[in-house]
From TrEMBL:
Gene3D superfamilies xref list: Ribonuclease Inhibitor
Compartment(s) of residence: Cytoplasm, Cytoskeleton, Cilium axoneme
Biological process (GO), any one: SCF-dependent proteasomal ubiquitin-dependent protein catabolic process
InterPro entries: LRR_dom_sf
GO cellular component: axoneme; SCF ubiquitin ligase complex
Protein name per the record: Uncharacterized protein
Length: 309
């Protein structure tokens, strides 16, 4: 099949196939050197990554690479081969559940045009991306350790183009200091979602929450203080707190202080009552109307960050 396809193939998508082998993928990548988009998912038992080196070496026009749920991948040969590569043109990279170690930064160093990164594993890899990928606009990180997150946030402070940050939090609660640092980043979209909610959004787990009321207050205070200190036009903010089951009226009161909120996702926040949800709906509607009208609100009262007059 690889020979029949030839160099005209530009996109490949494979999900959950028991008939796809490393040999087949290797042959395909070798024959289809014009590939621009590759999406491989849930090849848990069939792929060990023998195709990776040829994919990244031969497919020089590759722009989007999505690899997920392939836990047997061996990145060793690929990292070894990366020393021979010139810079690659990949702009979007998704690598989750693919057995990453702290040496994946060797590959990220070859991706200076990278704009979007979705990743898990050691924090060192995001530190490498922050140093070597100056165009990074969006980062999505599935994080399992509080220490990893501290290191990631410190690295992201130096990414000038970063506008979208998604954290998928697994097995711990974000502390107020971490949320304060997130609020300091010049972001237009913040997604702080629970890993459990992402896996099963319809299943309620009220005993677990990755964000609490104090954390939301710290985030809002930090966002408002940053805007006050910058003295520039405020940017609209999109926010997601999915699966934060501990949030109550106190968190809602804090969210209402955000200057321009144009999107809010509180799916799975089961303790927020209907009346408070209506207040948040009104807040988002007002933010969208302000954005559409072209009006520019200003912070006039530094004693009450977030208050628009």
């Amino acid at each position: 099949m690889a020979d029949r396809v030839g160099s005209g193939l530009t996109s490949v998508r494979v999900r959950g196939s028991a008939f796809v082998t490393d040999v087949g993928l290797h042959s395909l990548m070798t024959a289809a050197s014009s590939l621009q988009h590759v999406h491989l998912e849930d090849l848990r038992k069939t792929s060990r990554g023998e195709f990776l080196a040829v994919l990244l070496e031969k497919c020089t026009q590759l722009q989007t690479l999505h690899l997920s749920d392939m836990p047997l991948l061996n990145w060793g040969p690929c990292k070894l081969a990366s020393s021979r590569w010139a810079e690659r043109s990949i702009t979007k990279l998704h690598v989750r559940g693919v057995n990453l170690d702290s040496g994946f930064g060797m590959i990220l160093e070859k991706l200076p045009k990278l704009v979007e990164l979705e990743i898990d594993g050691p924090s060192r890899n995001i530190k490498s991306a922050a140093e070597k990928c100056p165009l990074l606009h969006r980062v999505s990180y599935q994080v399992t350790h509080r220490q990893y997150l501290d290191e990631v946030l410190a690295a992201l402070m130096n990414v000038r183009q970063l506008k979208v940050l998604e954290l998928i939090v697994k097995n711990f609660t974000l502390c107020t200091e971490q949320l304060r640092v997130i609020g300091m980043l010049p972001l237009m979209e913040i997604r702080l979602d629970s890993f459990i909610y992402k896996q099963q959004p319809t299943l309620s787990r009220s005993s677990y929450s990755h964000v609490d009321n104090d954390g939301v207050k710290a985030l809002v205070d930090s966002v408002c203080n940053r805007w006050c200190a910058m003295g520039t036009d405020m940017q609209p903010l999109k926010l997601s707190l999915c699966g934060a089951t501990a949030l109550t009226h106190d968190a809602v009161s804090a969210l209402l202080r955000l200057p321009i909120l144009t999107e809010l996702d509180i799916g799975g926040c089961c303790r927020i009552i209907a009346m408070d949800k209506m207040r948040l709906v009104a807040k988002v509607r007002a933010g969208r109307e302000m954005l559409e009208s072209g009006r520019s609100p200003t912070m006039r009262n530094l004693r009450f960050p977030g208050l628009i007059l």
